[in-house]
Amino acid sequence: MDNTTRLQYLSAMGIDVWVPRIIAENTEIEAMASDAAKDSWSSLHTEMRACQQCDLCQTRQQVVIGAGNQHADYMWITEAPGLEEEQQGLPFADDSAELLTEMLRAMQLSREQVYITHIVKCRPPEDRDPKAQELVACDAFLQRQIALIQPKVLIAVGRIAAHKLLQSKAPLADLRGIEHQFSGVPLITMYHPAYLLRSLTEKSKAWQDMQMALTLLNKYKK
C-alpha cells in the first residue's frame, strides 16, 4: 500500500496523521500539476473573459488576463489593472513599465521570459483597491494560472498582492526579505515599481529582493 492510499484510509477512519511539512508541500505541488493536466489556457482564457462573478464585470473595458512565458520559472503577481493596463490588455503598461523592464534586465531576464498577472483581472473603478468579493472572485483564476505555469518562484509585487497571497496585513517592509510559501511554491514580496518611482531611496531594497529571487531559483530549480 502506498503512502497516499494509507493516509486516505486513516483519514476515512477519523485518524489524524501528522505529515512532515516537506511532504505536505510536495503533495500540494503534485495536486496542482494534476489539476493543470486537466485544464488548458484556452478554456481558462474563455472563462476569464466571460466572468461575471463580481460587479467589476459591469464596468470593465476588458479582462487583463496576464502576459509572458506560460512555462516561466518566475511568476510575478501584482494588484489590479490600472487604466493603461485595461486599455492595452497588458500588465505593467503604465508609467512603471520602463522600470519593470530595467529590473528584469538586472536579473538577466526579459518580459517574454517571465509571466506577469494580477490578483484581480478587471480594473476597479477609479483605480481603488480591490474589494474582498472581487479578490475571491478571481482567486480560482489565479490558482489555475499558477497550476498551468508551475513556476519555481512567485513574486508578489506591491502591498495589495502580498496581503492577498499571504493572508497578512503586515507592512510590506516586514514581509519582504523572507522566503514565504504559497500553495507549495516559494514566494517573496517586492515593492511595486510605481512605488519605487515615488520613493527612489527604496530602489536598493528592490535590488536585494531581486537577488533573493535569483538565489531561490537556483535553490529550487531542478
At the first level of CATH, the class is Alpha Beta
Weakly predicted, low-confidence segments: 19-25
Binned, the helix content reads 40-55%
Number of helices: 10
Mean pLDDT over the residues:
87
Explain how this protein is built.
Strand 5 (180-182) and strand 6 (185-190) form a beta hairpin. The protein has a single domain (19-220), classed as 3-Layer(aba) Sandwich (Uracil-DNA Glycosylase, subunit E), CATH 3.40.470. Mean pLDDT is 87; it is low at 19-25. By secondary structure, the protein is an alpha/beta fold. The radius of gyration is 18 Å and the shape is globular. Strands 1-3-2-4-6-5 form a six-stranded mixed β-sheet, with helices on both faces. It contains ten helices and six strands, in the order H-H-H-E-E-H-H-E-H-E-H-H-E-E-H-H. The longest helix is centred in the first third of the chain and has 18 residues, at 21-38.
